[in-house]
Design brief:
Blueprint lengths: L4 E2 L10 H9 L11 H13 L4 E5 L2 H12 L5 E5 L3 H4 L4 H4 L4 E5 L10 H13 L8 E7 L12 H13 L3 E6 L2 H8 L3 H5 L4 E5 L10 E5 L1 H13 L8 H13 L5 H16 L11 E4 L9 H10 L2 E2 L1 E3 L2 E5 L6 H16 L13
Parallel strand pairs: 1-10, 3-4, 3-5, 5-6, 6-7
Antiparallel strand pairs: 2-8, 7-8, 9-12, 11-12
Helix pairs in contact: 1-11, 2-11, 3-10, 6-7, 12-14, 13-14
């Protein structure tokens, strides 16, 4: 399959020329022995963006979440996370397997991907009603902003404060998986710090939305980050001259963060075009479009994805839907090309009661 327009993820972007220059020219040092100066600059800058004390550079968002959960939790302690959260469904179960946490799913009571404060309060009330020593002890609430599996829905910043208050009233900490927090902030016209709120720890990604080739950041208090640094080393994440990666992430903050809401505008145009084709696609809250065949189309999401892929459109299935993600490498011209390919491929699919396409 030759991909002509790639909507598979915002992780498929290629580093810009300015990122490549920064990677080539970045001052470096051994980050394990005496720190890398470019990494240190990125850690300080990202922590300031999120109103946190310190940051810890990571190779990936999955490692960032794993290190955060290992730092927050003792083995066999419970954490709460929304249904289909990345830490539950897309990280090989390492939250339990390696960090030793016991997960409990929260429902999407407020919005897709977003629990309500009452969901947290209900778990707290149940736990306080059975204080026997052999019962599970909860220590952490883990939220995802934006929620990938829910189509990029974000946690409204005012609600985030209420969720955090509910967790802390129970004596629990809060970790925010903010892999696409940049999009959540842009969609609400608030700063990344305001979108993150006062979570005890926050993960953000530079390779999702911002177009950097590699890297995520875990931010928290100075004391938490010092403990997290030991876990990162334990998991094989000790980095050497990693300024070559951090340099690209610094450029991403400068050049890509100001333009990130363009992705949401293009995602909205894409969803509208798909609705014109008779597909079910809600107006996306951020940069992820979930498209489903309508009840009378006669084809499945898997068949729809296969037709689009055969036409040269990169996409992925996600449950009963096909996922398409807009990003910095899809400008208006590429979007128009992609919509054209999607339109022709969808119109060729057989529908109940329709005559076969001409030429068949």
């Amino acid at each position: 399959m030759t991909i002509k327009v790639d909507f598979r993820s915002d992780t498929v972007t290629q580093p810009s020329q300015s990122m490549r220059r920064a990677m080539a020219e970045a001052p470096t040092g051994d980050d394990v022995i005496d720190r890398d100066p470019t990494v240190a600059e990125l850690e300080a800058r990202t922590a300031a963006l999120l109103d946190q004390e310190a940051g810890l550079f990571m190779p990936s968002g999955s490692m960032s979440n794993l290190v955060a959960l290992a730092t927050h939790l003792g083995r066999g302690e419970r954490f709460l996370a929304p249904r289909h959260a990345h830490v539950l469904s897309h990280e090989l179960g390492t939250a339990a397997w390696i960090a030793g946490g016991i997960p409990l799913e929260l429902p999407w009571s407020y919005a897709p991907g977003v629990p309500a404060p009452t969901d947290i309060e209900a778990v707290a009330a149940e736990e306080s009603a059975r204080p026997a020593y052999y019962e599970l002890i909860t220590r952490l609430v883990c939220l995802e902003n934006t929620h990938n599996h829910a189509g990029g829905h974000f946690v409204p910043w005012r609600l985030a404060g209420q969720l955090y208050d509910a967790a802390r009233a129970a004596g629990w900490a809060v970790h925010l998986d903010g892999a696409r927090l940049w999009h959540a902030a842009a969609a609400q016209c608030v700063s990344p710090a305001q979108a993150a709120g006062n979570a005890d720890s926050v993960t953000v990604c530079f390779s999702k939305g911002l177009g950097a080739p590699v890297g995520s950041m875990l931010c928290s208090s100075q004391a938490f980050i010092e403990r997290a640094r030991r876990w990162r080393k334990a998991f094989g994440g000790g980095l050497r001259q990693s300024g070559v990666l951090a340099g690209a992430a610094l450029v991403a903050l400068d050049e890509e963060l100001p333009r990130i809401d363009e992705d949401r505008r293009r995602a909205a145009a894409l969803a509208a075009a798909l609705r014109d084709l008779g597909l079910v696609a809600e107006d996306p809250p951020t940069n992820i479009v979930l498209a489903q065949p309508g009840p009378d189309t006669g084809f499945t999401a898997a068949e729809l994805a296969r037709a689009w892929q055969d036409a040269g459109v990169g996409c992925l299935t996600m449950g009963p839907a096909v996922r398409l993600v807009t990003h910095r490498d899809i400008d208006d011209a590429a979007l128009a090309d992609g919509i054209g390919l999607l339109t022709r491929a969808t119109e060729q699919l057989p529908r109940p009661g329709a005559a076969p396409p001409a030429g068949n």
